[in-house]
Each structure stands twice: as structure tokens, then as C-alpha cells.
Specification:
Number of domains: 1
Number of helices: 11
CATH class: Alpha Beta
CATH architecture: Alpha-Beta Complex
Order of helices and strands: HHHEHEHEHHEEHEEEHEEEHHE
Subcellular location: Golgi apparatus membrane
Keywords: Glycosyltransferase, Golgi apparatus, Membrane, Signal-anchor, Transferase, Transmembrane, Transmembrane helix
Number of strands: 12
Distance between the termini: 99 Å
Membrane topology: Single-pass type II membrane protein
GO molecular function, one term: alpha-1,6-mannosyltransferase activity
Helix content: 25-40%
CATH superfamily: Spore Coat Polysaccharide Biosynthesis Protein SpsA, Chain A
Strand content: 15-25%
GO cellular component, one term: mannan polymerase complex
């Protein structure tokens, strides 16, 4: 069929331009508003949404629904299948998330440097800290935030998946964090009860549905093998603690090491008899000369030779918390840090007793060392 004369005479370029202009008009007519206020409001909503994998969004971004007269839809229901969360001897290969938790009263740069040196993929590591509201705690918070800002704005491979900082909502029982004050026997019950409360607050706030492992790491642990997480997880134990030592200069002015943490032990009949005769509020504290428990202390069984078997493992009845790897399901089962006498034990040793009462085994690596800051 012949085209009308008017169309035959029309330049093809004119037709193309007309089509482009028509398309542009339709886009302008139906595109969402570019109102700066609307854009800012959307950004605020996104900023309010949780951006880390520890918990469901607390303020999820939802668009207004015209059918609800401009009101937002109800927040979504989030489903988690905890039976899909694995804890295996190959945590890197299985992409298992590790939550590193640290009660922090003082900030040591050595602690942070050691944390950065861990070879476990930082994208699978979430950090959690709890800090007391004291003068030292305030200074520690400032130093910690500066270190976090440098790391999280630095190379992507060094960044952690998330960082949570809590401030304690109760006062510490002792004002000084000096080692001599912390380890006085008279201060132990109140100090370790407060430490238990801090640990529990940190744990219950940060433990998320995707967490496979929880690594408790004290703020004054300044040296560990870079492969710490992989080395401990390799044993695939519910609760596992390495041996905590301290580097120092001995009387001959030579570098040396000495045991530091005496809270990892195998129980004795003497200690059991001692507990049986105690009142309900009394607690057995390990590492004091006037409390002879005759327990087998893991710190005293270490082989310090260069040829030692670092994978040697022993069962334990009590554990220390300087560096402690726990399967998240142990905590989900209810094992926490009792701030009260629990079978005459408290804090990490009470946690070991509670875990064992729940059917989980506790173990130690006597020849695998981490090192505590030497004041």
C-alpha cells in the first residue's frame, strides 16, 4: 500500500527526533520525584536500618502503601534456620562467622595489632566490646574508636564485618585496674561477679543467629599465633582454652616466660571436699597459697620446649577466659557466666561447670600459648 504524500515527504530524522522526545516526555511524567526532601528522607530510613549480620533489622526500610493511606507496611518477619549454622573443624572452608568478645577496661595497642594480624578472614569476624563508665574506661573508649575508625576505613581485607561497643550500666567494684589490685583475694568475689555481669551483657546483646563461634579474648592478650581461630576450631570442641603465659625479664636479665592464668584446671578430691563443707555463698578461688585445692593446673603442666606437641589436648573442669573459644550453640543452650556462687564457682570457672552440667565438654591445650601483657 502506498504511503500518504505527507509522510513520504517527511525527513526520517524528524521521525527519530519525535520518537526520542515522546519517550523523554513519558519518562518525565511517570518517573519518581527527585525532590531533595524525599531523597533525604529515604536516606534516613536506610541509615536507621541495621547494616550488620548480628541481628534482624531494627528499623527496616519499607515504602508507604497507597492502600494504607500513606502508612508504612508492617515490618517484615525474618526467618533464621539455626540448624544450618555449622561449627566445624574447617571454619574458613565452611564460611563460619566468629564473634570475638572483649571486656575492655584499658586499651592496649598490642591487643589491637594482634587482632589485625589474625589470619581468619576479617569479613567473617564480628567484634564486640563492653567498657566501664570510668575515667580509664572513657580513655579506652576514645582509643578504641580511633583504632576502629582507622581499620574500618582502611583496606577492605582488614575490615571487620561489624563492631559493637557497649558501655556498662553499673559501676565496677574496684576503682583501679592495676594488676596488683585486680588479683587481691579480697577483691575476687566482687570483681569477678561484676566481670560475669559484663560478659553476660556483652554476650546476650551481640550473639546473633548467624554466629558459629564465640572467641572470648581479654583486652590484655597482646600476642597469639595469627592462626589462633583456625588452630582452636580444628579440635572441634564445644569449649576450648589455650594456655595463657606472660613474657618477662628474669633475674639473670634474660627474656623468659611464666604461667599467668590459673583458672584452667582438673578438679581434685580435696577441692570437692572443701566445697562440700562450704556455706552457700562461699567460692573457691584458684591460685592463692592459703587455698590449697591440689587441683591439676593446666598452667603447670605445659611443655615449653621447642619440639612440644601444640595439639596435645586434655579435659578440664574449670576454664580461664583470657582466650576461650566456645561453640555458639553452647551459649544458646544457656551456658553463661554466673555472677553468683554456682557449685562454689564463679565467672569463667562457673561457666565451665554450667556447660558441663548441660552436657558439653570442656578442654584445654597445655602446650599452645597465648601471651598476656606484662605490667
Amino acid at each position: 500500500m502506498a504511503l500518504p504524500r505527507s509522510i513520504r515527504r517527511t525527513n526520517p530524522i524528524t521521525l527519530v527526533l519525535a520518537a526520542v522526545l515522546s519517550f523523554g516526555f513519558l519518562v518525565f511524567l511517570f518517573a519518581p520525584s527527585s525532590n531533595p526532601g524525599a531523597v533525604l528522607n529515604a536516606k534516613r530510613k536506610i541509615a536507621n536500618a541495621a547494616a550488620h549480620p548480628l541481628s534482624p533489622p531494627t528499623a527496616p526500610f519499607v515504602k508507604p502503601d497507597a492502600s494504607l493511606n500513606g502508612l508504612s507496611k508492617p515490618p517484615p518477619v525474618v526467618h533464621y534456620h539455626l540448624n544450618n549454622v555449622t561449627t566445624t573443624a574447617d571454619p574458613v572452608g565452611n564460611q563460619e562467622t566468629v564473634l570475638i568478645l572483649t571486656p575492655l577496661a584499658r586499651f592496649y595497642q598490642g591487643y589491637w595489632n594482634n587482632l589485625l594480624a589474625l589470619s581468619y578472614p576479617h569479613s567473617l569476624i564480628a567484634l564486640g566490646f563492653i567498657i566501664p563508665k570510668t575515667k580509664e574506661g572513657n580513655a579506652a573508649t576514645v582509643a578504641l574508636q580511633a583504632a576502629i575508625a582507622t581499620t574500618q576505613q582502611g583496606p577492605e581485607g582488614k575490615r571487620f564485618a561489624s563492631v559493637t561497643i557497649l558501655r556498662q550500666d553499673f559501676d565496677p567494684p574496684i576503682s583501679s585496674q592495676d594488676e596488683s589490685e585486680r588479683h587481691k583475694k579480697d577483691n575476687q568475689k566482687a570483681r569477678r561477679a561484676a566481670m560475669s555481669r559484663a560478659r553476660n551483657s556483652l554476650l546476650f546483646t551481640t550473639l546473633g543467629p548467624s554466629t558459629s563461634w564465640v572467641l572470648w579474648l581479654d583486652a590484655d592478650i597482646i600476642e597469639t599465633p595469627p592462626t589462633l581461630i583456625q588452630d582452636l576450631a580444628f579440635h572441634d570442641k564445644p569449649v576450648l582454652v589455650p594456655n595463657c603465659f606472660q613474657r618477662f625479664t628474669n633475674e639473670e636479665n634474660k627474656p623468659d616466660t611464666r604461667p599467668y592464668d590459673y583458672n584452667s584446671w582438673q578438679d581434685s578430691q580435696v577441692a570437692a571436699d572443701m566445697a562440700r563443707d562450704m556455706g552457700p555463698e562461699e567460692i573457691i578461688f584458684e591460685g592463692y597459697a592459703d587455698i590449697a585445692t591440689y587441683r591439676t593446673l593446666m598452667a603447670m603442666t605445659a611443655d615449653r620446649s621447642e619440639s612440644r606437641n601444640q595439639q596435645a589436648i586434655i579435659p578440664l573442669d574449670g576454664v580461664g577466659g583470657t582466650a576461650l573459644l566456645v561453640k555458639a550453640e553452647v551459649h544458646r543452650d544457656g551456658a553463661m557466666f554466673p555472677p553468683f556462687p554456682f557449685y562454689h564457682l564463679i565467672e569463667t570457672e562457673g561457666f565451665a561447670k554450667m556447660a558441663r552440667r548441660l552436657g558439653w565438654g570442656c578442654f584445654g591445650l597445655p602446650n599452645y600459648f597465648v601471651y598476656h601483657y606484662n605490667e
